[in-house]
Amino acid sequence: MSLKFLILALLYLCEKALGELIIKDITIDKNETTRYMSGGECSYYLSVLVIDDSSDSLLTIYTESNNGMGFNVMASNTFSFKNSSYSSSIFSISILSYKGTGVPVVIASNYNTNSTLYLPVQCIEIQKGQVTLLKKTDMQPDIFGLLSFQFQIGGLISNYPSGTIMGLNSYYSLINDYVYYSYCSNPQGDIPSSISTEFLSSGLSVSVDDYYNTTNVDSVTNLKRFPNLKQDIQLMGKFYVPLFSFESDTPYLIPSFSMSANTSFTKFLHRPISKINNITTFIGSYIFPKSGVLTHYIFYAQNQSTATLRDSVYFNIKEFNNNLIPTNTNNITQSNSWLIIDFNSTSLYDFTPFYITHLSTKYYKFPFGFKQGGSGGYQYSATFLLPDAIPNPQTISFSTIYPYSYLNGDGFSSNVYSPTPASYNSPMFIDHQFYHLYDSFYILSFKIKHDYPIYKISNYYRDYFITTLSSGTIENGTFEMLVDTRRKSETIFINQFRTFSPYTGHYYSPINLKPFDIPPKLNDIDFFNEIRDASILYKTMNVTNSKAGNILYFNYTKLDINTPINLFVNAPIFITQTFEVPDEYLDNFVPAVWNSTINMFQAEFFLPKNSLPGKIPFALFFKDNAFVLGQSLGPNAQFNVISENCDLYGPIFENIIKVSNSVSGSSLVGWNLTISDPINGFAGGYIVIKGTDGSVYYKTLIATEKIYSDTYFVSINISSPCAQHILTITDVVLFDTENNNSTFSIFSELGGFSLSLYNPFINFIGDDSINKISVECDTDIIDNTPPHIDTLSISSNVIDISSNSRDVVISFNVTDLESGLKNDALPMVYLSTVDLDKIECLIKIISIFNQFNHEYHCSTTIPLGFGYPYGILISIYGLVNNGGAFGGYSTADLKEQGLPHSINTTFALGEPVIEGVSKISTLGGDIWITGKGLLGINSAFLGTLELTIYKNVGNSAVLLKGIPALTLNSKYTIHVTKGTYISNLIEFTPYEKVNGQYLPPSPTTTPSTTPSETPSITPSITPSITPSITPSITPSITPSITPSTTPTIKCAGTPECGGSSKGHCNSGTCICISPWIGIDCTSKIVIVDPPKVNSSNPSNEITTPSSNSSNSIKEAAVYKSFISLVSLRELDFNDIVINQYYFSKWVFSEINALSSRYITNITNKDGKSISQVTAITEWFTKETNVSFGGIDLTMNPSSLKYTISIDSYPFRDKLCRLELLMSASFTSSKTDDICSSQEFTSTTTTNSNNGNDDDDDDKSRGNNYLKIQIDNHSMYARFLKRGIVDDKTVTIDNRQINDTLKMENSESHSSALIGIIIPHFNNYSIIDPDFSVLIDHQSSTSSSPNSICSLNSNSGLSKSALAGIIIGGIAFFLVIVICIIYFIYKSNPTHFKLIKQRILLSCFFSKKLKSRY
Fold this sequence. Notes:
By secondary structure, the chain is mostly beta strands. It is 5% helix and 45% strand. Strands 83, 84, 88, 89, 90, 93, 95, 96, 97, 98, 99, 102, 103 and 104 form a 14-stranded antiparallel beta sheet that branches. Strands 27, 28, 31, 32, 64, 66, 67, 70, 71 and 72 form a 10-stranded mixed beta sheet that branches. Strands 73, 74, 75, 76, 77, 78, 79 and 80 form an 8-stranded antiparallel beta sheet that branches. A hairpin with a 2-residue loop joins strand 78 and strand 79 (981-982). Helix 4 (1359-1387) packs across helix 5 (1389-1409). The protein is globular. The relative contact order is 0.07.
């Protein structure tokens, strides 16, 4: 126990009863207290921590003392924690309307004691000339489909107030490091002039040259309207407005086109669809300002410095209306954990989807919820499941319009209450850690505690179910989530709790003062200004009728090579005018990886065949909101695309013929659809058809050999008798061979008029009946009674949703004795759980006994984690008879009928399930697998080929090595085993590598005259490799600092290296001649049997029996070497131990007969796993060459090598290091007339890199050696002075620990404790020591280093006496210290309290508070 800890403990115990409050400013951004004025005032948002370390009091902050000071201060409690003797809270402090005078103050209180904190802030007025322009780019089209540029300003110590920035025809957004992104607004009849952004008060205005040449005239020819001659237009689907196409010779990727509607300019949605012979074909839309109003549309295009009219037309557009839910219908009932929505409507159902909102919004399509319906209206009834506890009360709404509002006259809402009466207790977030896997993917480990089961963890883009639980329980456990930092994931939500959640850049717990930050951290990186040496492999890419690949190379001055960077290449085929990348585009991101051969980042990408030609925009993304535009990388990084057959348009319907006949007996009705795609060709698609009688049909389209144009018959078999009804094509999706698509939906989940630009019905706009067929019947029957479910069975009533056996089959028998069941109209089975989540179970088998009796079988695999712990509800809808009636059964209905209606769920941690894999190229190599239960897997297989398990990250990710070269476009599977478990198969397809080799860009030509003014920006095209041209003139004078001779470094031994017959000296290291070995080549290798495998821990005992043969051993003896891993400890920058973890439990697995793997978790005081150590032991039976850290090593026979890897560790700070302690001992069975000795030495090697002192590899080529000798035998250990840290070879320090109290050495036993010091790392570190046993040419004597001999005298103090003196001295010293403390307290209590508070704040925060929970 350290003296410092004893003093702190004494202070704490002596003063705890006083109950003082501790209040501290813990604002993360230390610049937050300095702001620039906006409108003569400033605002600040700070964080304050309040601690009562003596009671569980309710903490609050008062701000009233600021009243009358001319500014406002407000406080709100964001997170709190307390137990029986402790309470703490984090408060958000807002300081508003501060004008520069006065010091804001907050007063913390526990209603017994107060504590005051002053918050000095600065409100600075910006001066003229203070802000300067550091760098800017040209204005170019960007990946968002906007004209934009980036620039960086200097002279600031805080962000410029946004309210004092003005843009002329421009918008702006601050990204990072005072870098701004400015883009041009939508043209409105004029040609955008010079874009500028003005920083008011500073006098700085940033502008760029015109993008458009004022001499340019854009032609507009061959304009076609859809429809052409019709003025009154009824839309056939919501958002699918009239269109027009035209051709233009515009030279611009983003032309200056605009549209007005009734003299007011509107947003003009358009996109290019083809380009041939420099003529681009565009498609544009007519957006109506108001339904049913005659509107005059005028289309404009550039004519030199103005925009001129190119087309004028009048349309009266009537929007696609849907039936609304009656607002006076509000039948939401709650029965314990069931929520039932039930209402009636007299309107004929028109396929309108419903939006149900309860915290989140879910989209429900027909037939879900429709209990009964027909020509007279419908009844809706659905059952939803609630969790045990929800915040009370919560609102649920039901409508056809999103978002719901009672002002829309549609739908209804109601309050929902927690099934279990409970107080509102938010989940408690204890600690978190990010572990980088690959590209932009991380494992986020979060320790969370909640009063109720944690069944779902969510961020902005994904829901994670209970299978993310890695250890602990669902109320108090560690959860691991695979996070993609390309997507927005700033906030973590638990269950239905949407407040008091971790948010990026903020604290989430008053116990663990750790902000939640999404990696990578770019605080110290000027990612806009520090990029250099950017170049593209191919300046020209030809994609005419074939795809083309390319590679972008670049470097960064200070960036970690493991930082995720993504390249996004995007031709703006649709002008989005939005400042973000849609989620559907994120799969087109290409990771930039570090190429260690050329020491550059490189990003490989392909462009599809017949894609858009020209200078294609691209950008480098570090996070979703941090990016560098392509024009920032300089001219060497730009490339041009040639595409002589450009095709960006999906397949369309060229001709449609409806097939409708009166039905007698059985007949086919449908549509003959001629699908055309003349360049890329049609690849496939699907069509959904729905009937007013409740029938739903899904039709898959498979392309014929005539991919450029062919006719497909989409038919429906109508049985007899039947009821008159209307069939409607409600949804269409068509793809071409390059994945360009055309889509249509009468109701779209994601609305917007931009959908119309992809309409496959373009040739039929204005004909709202083309997608409808009326079915007439000779034998017409009306049967208003829907079909009935007689029996229902479920293959399993209990499903382990964490296992690989999650398949479920649901079978049910349906009868309709009046009109019979409709043959091809299949029902749908729904499985639902809490939070409105549901999945569909498709009917895959149907048994038709007769016209009136069918049996249906659906099968599906339950998603991992779905439905735990509250179970799964079953409902069935879409039962249709021949008489025009449809129906279904909610969960409540099934229960009322006495039928099975739910599935129980269970969960276990152990079984491995693979959910995903990383991308891998056809070259093979390494691959990550992610999922659950992956810790401790025994083996992994690619098909039948066993792979090497290299690294685990928690329970959720494993790195596998040994993937061979793979075949392009072939599918492969991976699975793992763990004990008796065999995981599922995960399938992947390798991607194609780009052919080409890096060539440095040519150096720029030196100007013949010196510029009169030094440019302020360094060109970014400086070549990364020195030109190979040799100067024609050699300097005549050699600098005097160059040494004339290389200094000689001597080797060990007399003679050196044992003489010429045993070895020779090479730069300070002995190169031994077999069989000699050792530092001085005077020892021989002893060949022994492999040690017995230790299945408990990576400790090894090597037994060396002596022989009475011709060797120099005097008598028979047995020697034993014992090597073990003791502990791992964290050191601060002074090498003081701040944390130590002793190894205890290891998970053992055998690699082969001579190799074993051991894995153990490093846990903190709370029992939370914070890192993982893997030790691989390997025994060598013959001389073998191995490689580690870029050097070749020789492993001698009978050598034992350890390869020890440590996963990412939560260092206290970047100055801390880890030290791995290894114990090595050597024992002899002989005890008389012998000596033992120890020697810890090192060797060095001079650099061989021609004087390049920056070569880290050469710096660390020396080794440390430990030699423990007893008599003429020794154990010999080699500790490399190099290790691998985060894919980089670094210097490792090794030292011998003098721990005489633990190492009881004697003449026949000698032990040593070696510390291997590993520098700070982010992801992992690897070290590689080895051990062997030798015979020495001479025995150990009393003159040997650190010797102990059997004849030594026992003079001197015994060890026990020494221990008594040491302990007594420490006790005496503590008495003196306590007396001094008592004297200070009596003489100056205030000063004593100040000292105590400072010590608590500096040490108590980092150690004591974390251990509170």
